[in-house]
């Protein structure tokens, strides 16, 4: 898909949901975009049985949290810059504060707190629904305007000739 498209003229949550549906990994894990506004994104993930650390464990695989944070942070970059251009995760660091129970949905809240022409910086907290305090905190850095396949919303594809 060629070109770039601003998200200001479209419903940003709809654009974010479409993006999530087009990324097989996010779709397979069951990630849902709840809100996307200004420089923030909130996502939810209801863990399925195949996301457990093992059959006897009462917690989720830590990689599930990592994937959720990476997705939420990437979408927070799009929310902040209001443009759908290719980005790439440069660095993602996670502090796992406590195990994420497998019986509760995860809520991720990411905010892009600074960006330049080349790099964006994002923080994200992950909570288990119904519990106080985060289970994990992530800090991510994204390269902006990377070379690669561009993507656009379905609305803009209909306008292309």
TrEMBL record:
One of its GO terms (molecular function) is thiolester hydrolase activity. Pfam families: 4HBT. Gene3D superfamilies: Hotdog Thioesterase. It comes from the Bacteria. InterPro entries: HotDog_dom_sf (IPR029069), Thioestr_dom (IPR006683). Residues 64-130 form the Thioesterase domain. It comes from Abyssibacter profundi. This is PaaI family thioesterase.
């Amino acid at each position: 898909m060629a070109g770039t498209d601003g998200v200001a003229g479209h419903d940003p949550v709809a654009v974010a949901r479409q993006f999530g549906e087009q990324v097989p990994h996010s779709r397979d894990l069951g990630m849902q975009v709840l809100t996307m506004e200004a420089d923030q994104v909130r996502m939810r993930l209801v863990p399925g049985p195949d996301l457990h650390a093992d059959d006897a464990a009462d917690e989720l695989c830590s990689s599930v949290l990592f994937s959720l944070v990476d997705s939420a942070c990437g979408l927070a970059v799009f929310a902040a810059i209001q443009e759908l251009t290719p980005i790439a995760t440069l660095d993602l660091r996670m502090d796992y504060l406590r195990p994420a129970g497998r019986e509760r949905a995860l809520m991720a809240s990411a905010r892009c707190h600074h960006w330049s022409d080349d790099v964006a910086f994002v923080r994200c907290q992950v909570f288990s629904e119904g519990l106080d305090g985060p289970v994990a905190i992530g800090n991510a850095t994204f390269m902006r305007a990377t070379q690669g396949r561009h993507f656009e919303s379905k609305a803009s594809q209909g306008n292309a000739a």
